[in-house]
Amino acid sequence: YPLYQLGGPQLRIFRPNFFMLAVRPGVPQPEDTVQFRVSMEMTKVDIKNYLEKIYSVPVAAVRTRIQYGANNKRDHKNRRVKKPDYKVAYVQLGQGQTFQFPNLFPEKEQDAETRSFDDFRNKYMEREQQRQKGDPRRGGVPDWFG
Amino acid sequence: MAASRARRVLWHGRCWFSQTESAVPPQPPDSLYPPIVASATAQSKAARRRRLEHFKQRVHAAPSIEEKLRLYGQLQRPKYMVYPQTFALNADRWYQSFTKTVFVRGLPPRAAPAAAKAPGAVAPEAARAAEGAAGMSAEAAKAPEPGTAAPGAAKTPQPAAGAAPYLDMRELRSLACDALLQESFYQNKKRPYLYRDQDHTPGPFLTQLVSTLAAFLCSRNPLLAASSIDLKPEVNYYWHHGEEVVVHGHRKGRVDPVRFQIDDNPHIQIRVPKQLPEIVPLDSDLGDVPVIDHKPSKLPLFKRQYENKVFIGSKVADPCCYGHTQFHLIPDKLKRQRFVRANLEDQIEVLYRANGIASLFAWTAAQAMYQGFWNEADVTRPFVSQAVVTDGKYFAFFCYQLNTLALTVETIQNNTRKNICWGTDSKPLYEVVEDGNVKGLNDEVLLQLVRFLLNRPKEL
Protein backbone atom coordinates (compact mmCIF):
# COMPACT_ATOMS: atom_id res chain seq x y z
CA TYR A 1 0.00 0.00 0.00
CA PRO A 2 1.30 3.54 -0.70
CA LEU A 3 2.72 5.25 2.38
CA TYR A 4 0.35 7.75 3.97
CA GLN A 5 1.85 11.17 4.66
CA LEU A 6 0.22 14.10 6.43
CA GLY A 7 -2.15 15.90 4.12
CA GLY A 8 -2.20 13.11 1.58
CA PRO A 9 -5.36 11.54 0.23
CA GLN A 10 -7.15 8.83 2.18
CA LEU A 11 -6.36 5.44 0.72
CA ARG A 12 -9.50 3.78 -0.56
CA ILE A 13 -9.57 0.28 -1.96
CA PHE A 14 -12.70 -0.99 -3.62
CA ARG A 15 -13.57 -4.67 -3.79
CA PRO A 16 -10.25 -6.01 -2.49
CA ASN A 17 -9.59 -9.71 -2.68
CA PHE A 18 -9.89 -10.29 1.06
CA PHE A 19 -10.83 -13.79 2.10
CA MET A 20 -10.32 -15.79 5.29
CA LEU A 21 -10.44 -19.54 5.56
CA ALA A 22 -10.50 -21.14 9.02
CA VAL A 23 -8.27 -24.22 9.01
CA ARG A 24 -7.43 -26.98 11.45
CA PRO A 25 -4.01 -26.22 12.99
CA GLY A 26 -1.28 -28.69 12.11
CA VAL A 27 0.30 -28.34 15.56
CA PRO A 28 -1.81 -27.95 18.72
CA GLN A 29 -2.58 -24.30 19.41
CA PRO A 30 -3.69 -22.68 22.69
CA GLU A 31 -7.44 -22.62 23.28
CA ASP A 32 -7.95 -18.98 22.39
CA THR A 33 -6.05 -19.17 19.08
CA VAL A 34 -7.76 -19.71 15.73
CA GLN A 35 -5.73 -20.42 12.59
CA PHE A 36 -6.76 -18.91 9.25
CA ARG A 37 -5.46 -18.91 5.70
CA VAL A 38 -5.90 -15.40 4.43
CA SER A 39 -5.28 -13.49 1.25
CA MET A 40 -1.68 -12.41 0.73
CA GLU A 41 -2.62 -8.75 0.60
CA MET A 42 -4.24 -8.67 4.05
CA THR A 43 -2.37 -7.15 6.97
CA LYS A 44 -2.86 -7.80 10.69
CA VAL A 45 -4.98 -4.68 11.00
CA ASP A 46 -7.10 -5.76 8.02
CA ILE A 47 -7.67 -9.18 9.57
CA LYS A 48 -8.67 -7.65 12.90
CA ASN A 49 -11.12 -5.25 11.27
CA TYR A 50 -12.53 -7.97 9.03
CA LEU A 51 -13.37 -10.22 11.97
CA GLU A 52 -14.60 -7.47 14.24
CA LYS A 53 -16.77 -5.60 11.76
CA ILE A 54 -18.19 -8.34 9.58
CA TYR A 55 -18.49 -11.19 12.06
CA SER A 56 -18.36 -9.20 15.35
CA VAL A 57 -15.74 -11.51 16.80
CA PRO A 58 -13.62 -9.84 19.51
CA VAL A 59 -9.97 -10.06 18.49
CA ALA A 60 -7.18 -9.52 21.01
CA ALA A 61 -4.09 -10.14 18.88
CA VAL A 62 -3.17 -11.25 15.37
CA ARG A 63 0.11 -12.71 14.15
CA THR A 64 0.77 -13.56 10.51
CA ARG A 65 3.34 -15.41 8.50
CA ILE A 66 3.70 -16.32 4.85
CA GLN A 67 3.99 -19.99 4.02
CA TYR A 68 6.19 -20.63 1.00
CA GLY A 69 4.71 -23.21 -1.38
CA ALA A 70 7.28 -25.77 -2.51
CA ASN A 71 8.70 -25.73 -6.00
CA ASN A 72 10.23 -29.19 -6.09
CA LYS A 73 7.67 -31.27 -7.94
CA ARG A 74 8.18 -31.79 -11.64
CA ASP A 75 5.60 -32.48 -14.33
CA HIS A 76 5.93 -34.90 -17.23
CA LYS A 77 8.03 -32.35 -19.14
CA ASN A 78 10.41 -31.93 -16.15
CA ARG A 79 9.23 -28.40 -15.54
CA ARG A 80 9.04 -27.35 -11.93
CA VAL A 81 5.49 -27.14 -10.56
CA LYS A 82 5.00 -24.58 -7.83
CA LYS A 83 2.50 -24.98 -5.06
CA PRO A 84 1.02 -21.53 -4.36
CA ASP A 85 2.18 -19.43 -1.39
CA TYR A 86 -0.38 -18.44 1.19
CA LYS A 87 -0.53 -16.32 4.31
CA VAL A 88 -1.42 -17.89 7.67
CA ALA A 89 -2.92 -15.80 10.46
CA TYR A 90 -3.06 -16.83 14.14
CA VAL A 91 -5.86 -14.87 15.78
CA GLN A 92 -6.13 -14.73 19.58
CA LEU A 93 -9.70 -14.11 20.63
CA GLY A 94 -10.60 -11.50 23.21
CA GLN A 95 -12.91 -11.59 26.23
CA GLY A 96 -11.73 -15.03 27.26
CA GLN A 97 -13.38 -16.81 24.33
CA THR A 98 -12.03 -20.16 23.18
CA PHE A 99 -12.29 -22.06 19.93
CA GLN A 100 -11.75 -25.69 19.05
CA PHE A 101 -11.73 -26.67 15.39
CA PRO A 102 -14.71 -29.04 14.96
CA ASN A 103 -14.45 -32.59 13.71
CA LEU A 104 -16.02 -32.33 10.27
CA PHE A 105 -16.13 -36.05 9.57
CA PRO A 106 -17.45 -37.77 12.66
CA GLU A 107 -17.76 -41.54 12.72
CA LYS A 108 -21.32 -42.42 11.76
CA GLU A 109 -22.78 -45.31 13.67
CA GLN A 110 -23.66 -48.08 11.22
CA ASP A 111 -27.12 -49.60 11.10
CA ALA A 112 -27.68 -53.36 10.94
CA GLU A 113 -27.95 -53.45 7.14
CA THR A 114 -24.56 -51.74 6.56
CA ARG A 115 -22.92 -53.87 9.18
CA SER A 116 -24.19 -57.11 7.71
CA PHE A 117 -23.21 -55.93 4.21
CA ASP A 118 -19.68 -55.13 5.50
CA ASP A 119 -19.45 -58.56 7.11
CA PHE A 120 -20.62 -60.24 3.91
CA ARG A 121 -18.07 -58.28 1.89
CA ASN A 122 -15.20 -59.13 4.23
CA LYS A 123 -16.10 -62.84 4.16
CA TYR A 124 -16.28 -62.81 0.36
CA MET A 125 -12.85 -61.17 0.10
CA GLU A 126 -11.37 -63.72 2.48
CA ARG A 127 -12.82 -66.62 0.44
CA GLU A 128 -11.43 -65.13 -2.79
CA GLN A 129 -7.96 -64.78 -1.24
CA GLN A 130 -8.10 -68.35 0.02
CA ARG A 131 -9.00 -69.57 -3.46
CA GLN A 132 -6.08 -67.67 -4.99
CA LYS A 133 -3.66 -69.28 -2.55
CA GLY A 134 -2.45 -72.71 -3.50
CA ASP A 135 -2.34 -75.88 -1.49
CA PRO A 136 -0.98 -74.99 1.96
CA ARG A 137 0.92 -78.27 2.05
CA ARG A 138 3.14 -77.04 -0.80
CA GLY A 139 4.48 -74.17 1.40
CA GLY A 140 3.88 -71.28 -1.04
CA VAL A 141 5.55 -72.96 -4.03
CA PRO A 142 3.46 -72.31 -7.20
CA ASP A 143 1.89 -75.33 -8.89
CA TRP A 144 3.84 -74.78 -12.12
CA PHE A 145 6.48 -76.98 -10.48
CA GLY A 146 5.69 -80.62 -10.32
CA MET B 1 45.35 -49.69 35.79
CA ALA B 2 44.22 -47.97 32.67
CA ALA B 3 41.28 -46.20 34.20
CA SER B 4 43.21 -44.46 36.92
CA ARG B 5 45.90 -43.23 34.56
CA ALA B 6 45.32 -39.59 33.79
CA ARG B 7 44.42 -39.16 30.16
CA ARG B 8 43.03 -36.40 28.07
CA VAL B 9 39.62 -37.33 26.73
CA LEU B 10 38.01 -35.26 24.04
CA TRP B 11 34.28 -36.04 24.09
CA HIS B 12 32.61 -34.72 21.00
CA GLY B 13 29.08 -33.57 21.03
CA ARG B 14 29.30 -31.69 24.29
CA CYS B 15 32.73 -30.15 23.69
CA TRP B 16 34.08 -30.97 27.11
CA PHE B 17 37.45 -32.36 27.86
CA SER B 18 38.74 -33.58 31.12
CA GLN B 19 42.23 -34.14 32.28
CA THR B 20 41.40 -36.91 34.73
CA GLU B 21 38.85 -39.63 34.73
CA SER B 22 36.95 -38.20 37.70
CA ALA B 23 33.71 -40.05 36.96
CA VAL B 24 35.25 -43.41 37.83
CA PRO B 25 34.01 -44.72 41.18
CA PRO B 26 36.73 -45.59 43.69
CA GLN B 27 37.79 -49.21 43.33
CA PRO B 28 38.15 -51.57 46.23
CA PRO B 29 41.88 -52.08 46.87
CA ASP B 30 41.83 -55.83 46.29
CA SER B 31 40.42 -55.62 42.74
CA LEU B 32 42.96 -56.09 39.95
CA TYR B 33 40.61 -55.11 37.17
CA PRO B 34 39.33 -51.65 36.21
CA PRO B 35 35.66 -50.93 37.03
CA ILE B 36 33.14 -51.76 34.32
CA VAL B 37 31.38 -48.57 33.34
CA ALA B 38 29.56 -47.47 30.24
CA SER B 39 31.57 -45.98 27.45
CA ALA B 40 32.04 -42.25 27.51
CA THR B 41 32.15 -41.58 23.79
CA ALA B 42 29.63 -44.06 22.33
CA GLN B 43 26.37 -42.95 20.74
CA SER B 44 24.26 -44.63 23.38
CA LYS B 45 21.95 -43.59 26.16
CA ALA B 46 24.27 -45.04 28.79
CA ALA B 47 27.16 -43.02 27.38
CA ARG B 48 24.99 -39.88 27.40
CA ARG B 49 24.07 -40.51 31.00
CA ARG B 50 27.69 -40.97 31.92
CA ARG B 51 28.65 -37.72 30.21
CA LEU B 52 25.87 -35.90 32.07
CA GLU B 53 27.05 -37.35 35.38
CA HIS B 54 30.55 -36.23 34.62
CA PHE B 55 29.33 -32.72 33.82
CA LYS B 56 27.36 -32.55 37.08
CA GLN B 57 30.34 -33.69 39.08
CA ARG B 58 32.52 -31.09 37.41
CA VAL B 59 30.10 -28.35 38.37
CA HIS B 60 29.79 -29.69 41.93
CA ALA B 61 33.56 -29.80 42.28
CA ALA B 62 34.18 -26.36 40.78
CA PRO B 63 36.56 -24.40 43.02
CA SER B 64 34.81 -21.02 42.83
CA ILE B 65 31.40 -19.59 42.07
CA GLU B 66 32.62 -17.93 38.88
CA GLU B 67 33.92 -21.27 37.64
CA LYS B 68 30.59 -22.88 38.52
CA LEU B 69 28.66 -20.26 36.59
CA ARG B 70 31.05 -20.57 33.67
CA LEU B 71 30.55 -24.33 33.46
CA TYR B 72 26.80 -24.06 33.99
CA GLY B 73 26.36 -21.77 31.01
CA GLN B 74 29.17 -23.13 28.89
CA LEU B 75 27.15 -24.99 26.28
CA GLN B 76 25.28 -22.57 24.03
CA ARG B 77 22.16 -23.67 22.20
CA PRO B 78 19.05 -21.87 20.93
CA LYS B 79 16.94 -20.79 23.87
CA TYR B 80 13.72 -18.90 24.47
CA MET B 81 14.15 -15.25 25.41
CA VAL B 82 11.68 -14.41 28.16
CA TYR B 83 10.92 -10.71 28.41
CA PRO B 84 9.46 -9.61 31.75
CA GLN B 85 7.68 -6.65 30.14
CA THR B 86 5.69 -8.21 27.35
CA PHE B 87 2.60 -7.48 25.31
CA ALA B 88 1.74 -11.19 24.99
CA LEU B 89 -1.72 -12.11 26.22
CA ASN B 90 -2.00 -14.05 29.50
CA ALA B 91 1.76 -13.97 29.84
CA ASP B 92 1.61 -14.23 33.63
CA ARG B 93 0.15 -17.77 33.52
CA TRP B 94 2.78 -18.90 31.05
CA TYR B 95 5.59 -17.37 33.14
CA GLN B 96 4.23 -19.06 36.25
CA SER B 97 4.41 -22.41 34.49
CA PHE B 98 7.97 -21.76 33.27
CA THR B 99 9.20 -20.84 36.75
CA LYS B 100 6.98 -23.12 38.89
CA THR B 101 5.55 -20.14 40.74
CA VAL B 102 2.34 -19.88 42.71
CA PHE B 103 0.77 -16.44 42.50
CA VAL B 104 -1.06 -15.22 45.60
CA ARG B 105 -3.07 -12.01 45.37
CA GLY B 106 -2.35 -9.45 48.02
CA LEU B 107 0.84 -9.03 50.00
CA PRO B 108 1.79 -11.46 52.78
CA PRO B 109 0.66 -10.43 56.25
CA ARG B 110 3.76 -9.19 58.05
CA ALA B 111 3.65 -10.50 61.59
CA ALA B 112 6.93 -9.42 63.18
CA PRO B 113 7.62 -6.24 61.23
CA ALA B 114 4.02 -5.15 61.97
CA ALA B 115 4.86 -5.12 65.67
CA ALA B 116 7.74 -2.81 64.87
CA LYS B 117 5.52 -0.81 62.54
CA ALA B 118 2.60 -0.56 64.92
CA PRO B 119 4.30 1.95 67.17
CA GLY B 120 5.79 3.48 64.06
CA ALA B 121 2.50 3.90 62.25
CA VAL B 122 0.65 4.81 65.37
CA ALA B 123 3.13 7.49 66.21
CA PRO B 124 2.25 9.62 63.18
CA GLU B 125 -1.27 9.62 64.49
CA ALA B 126 0.06 10.45 67.93
CA ALA B 127 2.23 13.14 66.42
CA ARG B 128 -0.66 14.66 64.53
CA ALA B 129 -2.93 14.27 67.51
CA ALA B 130 -0.36 16.07 69.60
CA GLU B 131 -0.10 18.84 67.02
CA GLY B 132 -3.77 19.23 66.35
CA ALA B 133 -6.42 18.44 68.90
CA ALA B 134 -6.48 15.89 71.64
CA GLY B 135 -8.81 12.93 71.85
CA MET B 136 -9.33 9.82 69.80
CA SER B 137 -12.46 11.05 68.10
CA ALA B 138 -10.68 14.05 66.66
CA GLU B 139 -7.91 11.74 65.49
CA ALA B 140 -10.30 9.36 63.81
CA ALA B 141 -12.17 12.18 62.19
CA LYS B 142 -9.04 13.93 60.97
CA ALA B 143 -7.01 11.19 59.43
CA PRO B 144 -8.54 8.14 57.82
CA GLU B 145 -5.25 6.35 58.34
CA PRO B 146 -5.04 3.17 56.26
CA GLY B 147 -5.90 0.14 58.33
CA THR B 148 -2.66 -1.60 57.49
CA ALA B 149 -1.34 -0.98 61.00
CA ALA B 150 -2.67 -3.36 63.63
CA PRO B 151 -6.17 -2.08 64.31
CA GLY B 152 -5.76 -2.51 68.05
CA ALA B 153 -2.73 -0.29 68.06
CA ALA B 154 -4.52 2.32 65.98
CA LYS B 155 -7.26 2.61 68.53
CA THR B 156 -4.92 3.12 71.47
CA PRO B 157 -2.34 5.78 70.75
CA GLN B 158 0.63 4.57 72.69
CA PRO B 159 2.57 7.26 74.41
CA ALA B 160 5.65 5.06 74.13
CA ALA B 161 6.22 6.53 70.69
CA GLY B 162 9.50 7.86 71.94
CA ALA B 163 10.82 4.30 72.31
CA ALA B 164 10.68 3.44 68.59
CA PRO B 165 11.52 6.01 65.92
CA TYR B 166 8.32 7.12 64.28
CA LEU B 167 7.49 7.72 60.68
CA ASP B 168 6.49 11.25 59.94
CA MET B 169 3.76 11.02 57.31
CA ARG B 170 3.94 14.70 56.53
CA GLU B 171 7.64 14.46 55.87
CA LEU B 172 7.16 11.46 53.58
CA ARG B 173 4.31 13.10 51.74
CA SER B 174 6.31 16.23 51.25
CA LEU B 175 9.26 14.22 49.91
CA ALA B 176 7.03 12.47 47.40
CA CYS B 177 5.30 15.66 46.32
CA ASP B 178 8.61 17.47 46.00
CA ALA B 179 10.04 14.83 43.73
CA LEU B 180 6.88 14.76 41.62
CA LEU B 181 6.55 18.49 41.29
CA GLN B 182 10.22 19.03 40.59
CA GLU B 183 10.10 16.67 37.63
CA SER B 184 6.73 17.59 36.22
CA PHE B 185 6.14 21.23 37.15
CA TYR B 186 9.11 23.22 38.36
CA GLN B 187 11.72 21.99 35.95
CA ASN B 188 11.57 23.49 32.47
CA LYS B 189 11.69 20.61 30.06
CA LYS B 190 11.14 20.54 26.35
CA ARG B 191 8.34 18.41 25.00
CA PRO B 192 9.18 14.73 25.13
CA TYR B 193 10.30 13.14 21.92
CA LEU B 194 8.09 10.55 20.28
CA TYR B 195 7.77 7.40 22.43
CA ARG B 196 10.12 8.85 25.04
CA ASP B 197 7.45 9.90 27.52
CA GLN B 198 8.53 7.52 30.21
CA ASP B 199 12.15 8.69 30.17
CA HIS B 200 11.00 12.30 30.31
CA THR B 201 9.08 12.52 33.56
CA PRO B 202 8.24 9.23 35.35
CA GLY B 203 11.78 7.86 35.08
CA PRO B 204 13.57 10.75 36.83
CA PHE B 205 10.69 11.06 39.32
CA LEU B 206 11.08 7.41 40.32
CA THR B 207 14.84 7.73 40.70
CA GLN B 208 14.48 10.86 42.79
CA LEU B 209 11.73 9.38 44.95
CA VAL B 210 13.60 6.17 45.66
CA SER B 211 16.91 7.83 46.45
CA THR B 212 15.37 10.44 48.75
CA LEU B 213 13.18 7.91 50.54
CA ALA B 214 16.09 5.53 50.98
CA ALA B 215 18.25 8.32 52.37
CA PHE B 216 15.45 9.46 54.68
CA LEU B 217 14.82 5.95 56.01
CA CYS B 218 18.48 5.09 56.56
CA SER B 219 18.26 5.93 60.23
CA ARG B 220 15.32 3.59 60.71
CA ASN B 221 16.69 0.77 58.64
CA PRO B 222 20.44 0.29 59.03
CA LEU B 223 20.34 -2.21 56.18
CA LEU B 224 19.63 0.65 53.77
CA ALA B 225 22.70 2.44 55.00
CA ALA B 226 24.85 -0.53 53.96
CA SER B 227 22.95 -1.08 50.72
CA SER B 228 23.94 -0.35 47.18
CA ILE B 229 21.50 1.35 44.81
CA ASP B 230 21.99 0.55 41.13
CA LEU B 231 20.59 2.68 38.32
CA LYS B 232 19.52 0.75 35.20
CA PRO B 233 21.35 -2.45 36.18
CA GLU B 234 21.27 -5.65 34.24
CA VAL B 235 19.81 -8.84 35.67
CA ASN B 236 20.19 -12.11 33.75
CA TYR B 237 19.31 -15.71 34.45
CA TYR B 238 19.48 -18.89 32.39
CA TRP B 239 17.62 -22.10 33.24
CA HIS B 240 16.19 -25.33 31.86
CA HIS B 241 12.60 -26.46 32.33
CA GLY B 242 10.83 -29.29 30.60
CA GLU B 243 11.79 -31.23 27.50
CA GLU B 244 11.12 -31.06 23.79
CA VAL B 245 12.14 -32.80 20.61
CA VAL B 246 14.39 -30.83 18.24
CA VAL B 247 12.41 -30.13 15.08
CA HIS B 248 14.81 -28.82 12.43
CA GLY B 249 18.49 -28.99 11.79
CA HIS B 250 21.31 -31.46 12.17
CA ARG B 251 20.15 -32.34 15.71
CA LYS B 252 16.68 -33.27 14.54
CA GLY B 253 14.90 -35.91 16.57
CA ARG B 254 16.93 -35.56 19.76
CA VAL B 255 15.29 -34.83 23.09
CA ASP B 256 16.58 -31.58 24.52
CA PRO B 257 15.74 -29.58 27.63
CA VAL B 258 13.81 -26.38 26.98
CA ARG B 259 16.17 -23.50 27.70
CA PHE B 260 15.09 -20.04 28.84
CA GLN B 261 16.95 -16.81 29.40
CA ILE B 262 15.73 -13.64 31.08
CA ASP B 263 17.60 -10.41 30.37
CA ASP B 264 16.04 -7.70 32.46
CA ASN B 265 16.85 -4.03 33.01
CA PRO B 266 15.06 -2.73 36.09
CA HIS B 267 15.04 1.01 36.51
CA ILE B 268 16.49 0.96 40.03
CA GLN B 269 17.67 -1.87 42.23
CA ILE B 270 18.68 -2.01 45.88
CA ARG B 271 21.16 -4.71 46.86
CA VAL B 272 22.00 -5.43 50.48
CA PRO B 273 24.69 -7.44 52.27
CA LYS B 274 22.22 -9.42 54.42
CA GLN B 275 19.35 -11.51 53.19
CA LEU B 276 15.72 -10.63 53.82
CA PRO B 277 13.91 -13.04 56.18
CA GLU B 278 11.73 -15.80 54.80
CA ILE B 279 8.03 -15.10 54.61
CA VAL B 280 6.71 -18.65 54.80
CA PRO B 281 8.60 -21.89 55.51
CA LEU B 282 10.51 -23.52 52.68
CA ASP B 283 8.03 -26.32 51.95
CA SER B 284 4.75 -24.45 52.16
CA ASP B 285 2.09 -24.98 49.52
CA LEU B 286 -0.08 -21.93 48.95
CA GLY B 287 -1.72 -22.82 45.67
CA ASP B 288 -1.30 -24.45 42.30
CA VAL B 289 1.07 -23.77 39.49
CA PRO B 290 -0.81 -23.39 36.18
CA VAL B 291 0.15 -26.19 33.79
CA ILE B 292 0.31 -25.26 30.12
CA ASP B 293 1.15 -28.15 27.86
CA HIS B 294 1.67 -26.13 24.69
CA LYS B 295 5.06 -25.22 23.35
CA PRO B 296 6.37 -21.89 24.65
CA SER B 297 6.58 -20.57 21.08
CA LYS B 298 2.77 -20.29 21.05
CA LEU B 299 2.89 -17.51 23.66
CA PRO B 300 4.63 -16.06 21.37
CA LEU B 301 8.19 -16.63 22.55
CA PHE B 302 11.20 -16.69 20.25
CA LYS B 303 14.49 -18.52 20.25
CA ARG B 304 17.97 -17.21 19.83
CA GLN B 305 21.43 -18.43 20.74
CA TYR B 306 23.76 -16.17 22.68
CA GLU B 307 25.67 -16.02 25.93
CA ASN B 308 24.10 -17.84 28.87
CA LYS B 309 24.47 -15.16 31.47
CA VAL B 310 23.64 -15.28 35.18
CA PHE B 311 24.01 -11.87 36.80
CA ILE B 312 22.36 -10.05 39.70
CA GLY B 313 23.61 -6.55 38.96
CA SER B 314 27.07 -6.89 40.44
CA LYS B 315 29.80 -9.48 40.20
CA VAL B 316 30.23 -12.36 42.61
CA ALA B 317 32.83 -10.70 44.82
CA ASP B 318 30.54 -7.77 45.70
CA PRO B 319 29.53 -7.83 49.41
CA CYS B 320 25.99 -6.69 48.60
CA CYS B 321 25.03 -9.99 47.04
CA TYR B 322 21.43 -10.28 48.23
CA GLY B 323 18.53 -8.44 46.75
CA HIS B 324 16.18 -6.10 48.53
CA THR B 325 13.94 -4.19 46.15
CA GLN B 326 13.67 -3.62 42.43
CA PHE B 327 11.80 -0.80 40.74
CA HIS B 328 10.55 -1.36 37.21
CA LEU B 329 9.29 1.28 34.83
CA ILE B 330 6.77 0.27 32.18
CA PRO B 331 7.94 1.45 28.73
CA ASP B 332 5.94 3.57 26.32
CA LYS B 333 5.02 0.66 24.13
CA LEU B 334 3.02 -0.88 26.97
CA LYS B 335 1.22 2.11 28.43
CA ARG B 336 -2.25 1.78 29.92
CA GLN B 337 -3.70 4.03 27.25
CA ARG B 338 -2.63 1.70 24.46
CA PHE B 339 -4.26 -1.27 26.16
CA VAL B 340 -7.45 0.67 26.73
CA ARG B 341 -7.56 1.75 23.09
CA ALA B 342 -7.15 -1.87 21.97
CA ASN B 343 -9.94 -3.06 24.32
CA LEU B 344 -7.53 -5.10 26.41
CA GLU B 345 -8.13 -3.67 29.90
CA ASP B 346 -7.68 -7.03 31.61
CA GLN B 347 -4.20 -7.38 30.14
CA ILE B 348 -2.94 -4.32 32.05
CA GLU B 349 -2.80 -6.27 35.30
CA VAL B 350 -1.40 -9.26 33.44
CA LEU B 351 1.50 -7.09 32.30
CA TYR B 352 2.31 -5.98 35.86
CA ARG B 353 2.09 -9.53 37.19
CA ALA B 354 4.21 -11.00 34.42
CA ASN B 355 6.83 -8.34 35.01
CA GLY B 356 6.87 -8.99 38.75
CA ILE B 357 7.07 -12.77 38.46
CA ALA B 358 9.69 -12.94 35.73
CA SER B 359 11.99 -10.20 37.05
CA LEU B 360 11.89 -11.41 40.64
CA PHE B 361 12.40 -15.04 39.67
CA ALA B 362 15.45 -14.09 37.63
CA TRP B 363 16.86 -11.94 40.43
CA THR B 364 16.30 -14.40 43.28
CA ALA B 365 17.50 -17.35 41.24
CA ALA B 366 20.64 -15.46 40.21
CA GLN B 367 21.23 -14.58 43.88
CA ALA B 368 20.91 -18.26 44.75
CA MET B 369 23.40 -19.19 42.02
CA TYR B 370 25.81 -16.61 43.42
CA GLN B 371 25.67 -18.54 46.70
CA GLY B 372 26.55 -21.78 44.94
CA PHE B 373 23.11 -23.37 44.54
CA TRP B 374 21.94 -24.67 41.18
CA ASN B 375 19.37 -27.12 39.89
CA GLU B 376 21.31 -30.17 41.11
CA ALA B 377 22.15 -28.52 44.44
CA ASP B 378 18.82 -27.04 45.44
CA VAL B 379 18.52 -24.07 47.80
CA THR B 380 18.58 -24.88 51.52
CA ARG B 381 17.07 -21.55 52.58
CA PRO B 382 14.49 -19.43 50.77
CA PHE B 383 15.61 -16.30 48.93
CA VAL B 384 13.29 -13.33 49.25
CA SER B 385 13.12 -10.14 47.22
CA GLN B 386 10.63 -7.37 46.53
CA ALA B 387 9.70 -5.36 43.49
CA VAL B 388 7.62 -2.35 42.61
CA VAL B 389 6.31 -2.12 39.05
CA THR B 390 5.11 1.28 38.00
CA ASP B 391 4.39 3.43 35.01
CA GLY B 392 4.88 6.67 36.91
CA LYS B 393 1.38 6.97 38.31
CA TYR B 394 0.16 3.44 39.05
CA PHE B 395 2.15 1.29 41.47
CA ALA B 396 1.96 -2.47 41.93
CA PHE B 397 3.90 -4.23 44.68
CA PHE B 398 5.35 -7.74 44.46
CA CYS B 399 7.09 -10.05 46.88
CA TYR B 400 8.85 -13.25 45.79
CA GLN B 401 10.14 -16.23 47.73
CA LEU B 402 12.37 -18.63 45.84
CA ASN B 403 12.05 -22.10 47.37
CA THR B 404 13.42 -24.22 44.60
CA LEU B 405 15.80 -23.98 41.67
CA ALA B 406 15.29 -27.57 40.53
CA LEU B 407 13.21 -27.13 37.39
CA THR B 408 14.85 -29.60 34.99
CA VAL B 409 13.10 -32.81 34.00
CA GLU B 410 15.11 -35.07 36.31
CA THR B 411 15.11 -32.82 39.35
CA ILE B 412 11.49 -31.68 39.16
CA GLN B 413 10.07 -35.20 39.49
CA ASN B 414 10.50 -35.55 43.24
CA ASN B 415 10.40 -31.85 43.98
CA THR B 416 7.29 -30.74 45.86
CA ARG B 417 8.49 -27.21 46.59
CA LYS B 418 7.07 -24.29 44.66
CA ASN B 419 8.17 -20.70 44.36
CA ILE B 420 5.69 -18.16 45.64
CA CYS B 421 4.91 -14.67 44.41
CA TRP B 422 2.63 -12.28 46.24
CA GLY B 423 1.35 -9.27 44.31
CA THR B 424 -1.19 -6.47 44.37
CA ASP B 425 -3.13 -4.75 41.66
CA SER B 426 -1.87 -1.44 40.41
CA LYS B 427 -3.07 1.57 42.38
CA PRO B 428 -2.49 5.24 41.56
CA LEU B 429 -0.12 7.20 43.76
CA TYR B 430 -1.78 10.50 42.91
CA GLU B 431 -4.77 11.69 40.93
CA VAL B 432 -3.39 14.59 38.97
CA VAL B 433 -0.70 17.25 39.15
CA GLU B 434 -2.05 20.74 38.58
CA ASP B 435 -0.58 24.18 39.06
CA GLY B 436 2.09 23.12 41.47
CA ASN B 437 -0.21 20.95 43.58
CA VAL B 438 -0.43 17.23 43.75
CA LYS B 439 -4.06 16.29 44.09
CA GLY B 440 -5.23 13.06 45.68
CA LEU B 441 -1.96 11.66 46.97
CA ASN B 442 -2.68 8.09 48.01
CA ASP B 443 -1.24 7.44 51.45
CA GLU B 444 -1.66 3.71 51.21
CA VAL B 445 0.63 3.41 48.24
CA LEU B 446 3.23 5.64 49.83
CA LEU B 447 3.07 3.71 53.08
CA GLN B 448 3.43 0.42 51.25
CA LEU B 449 6.48 1.77 49.46
CA VAL B 450 7.98 2.88 52.74
CA ARG B 451 7.19 -0.48 54.30
CA PHE B 452 8.99 -2.19 51.43
CA LEU B 453 12.05 -0.04 51.97
CA LEU B 454 12.01 -0.65 55.72
CA ASN B 455 11.93 -4.42 55.35
CA ARG B 456 14.95 -5.92 57.06
CA PRO B 457 16.15 -9.13 58.71
CA LYS B 458 15.06 -9.64 62.29
CA GLU B 459 18.55 -9.38 63.77
CA LEU B 460 19.01 -5.77 62.71
Automatic annotation (TrEMBL), chain A:
Predominant cellular place of this UniProt entry's protein: mitochondrion
Localisation: Mitochondrion
GO cellular component annotations of the record: mitochondrial large ribosomal subunit
Keywords of this entry: Mitochondrion, Ribonucleoprotein, Ribosomal protein
Biased composition (Basic and acidic residues): 106-140
Pfam family, one: Ribosomal_L23
Regions annotated as coiled coil: none
Positions of the UniProt region annotated as Disordered: 103-146
GO biological process assignments: mitochondrial translation
GO molecular function: structural constituent of ribosome
Similarity remark: Belongs to the universal ribosomal protein uL23 family.
PANTHER family with a match to the protein in the record: LARGE RIBOSOMAL SUBUNIT PROTEIN UL23M, RIBOSOMAL PROTEIN L23-RELATED
Protein name: Large ribosomal subunit protein uL23m
From TrEMBL, chain B:
GO CC annotation: mitochondrial large ribosomal subunit
Taxonomy, superkingdom: Eukaryota
Biological processes, Gene Ontology terms: translation
Alphabetical UniProt keywords: Mitochondrion, Ribonucleoprotein, Ribosomal protein
Annotated protein name in UniProt: RT30 protein
Cross-referenced PANTHER family: LARGE RIBOSOMAL SUBUNIT PROTEIN ML65, MITOCHONDRIAL 28S RIBOSOMAL PROTEIN S30/P52 PRO-APOTOTIC PROTEIN
Organism: Nyctiprogne leucopyga
InterPro entries for the chain: Ribosomal_mL37/mL65, Ribosomal_mL65
Pfam families attached to this UniProt entry: PDCD9 (PF07147)
Presence of keyword Kinase: no
Subcellular localization: Mitochondrion
GO molecular function list: structural constituent of ribosome
Region (Disordered): 136-162
Main location (coarse class): mitochondrion
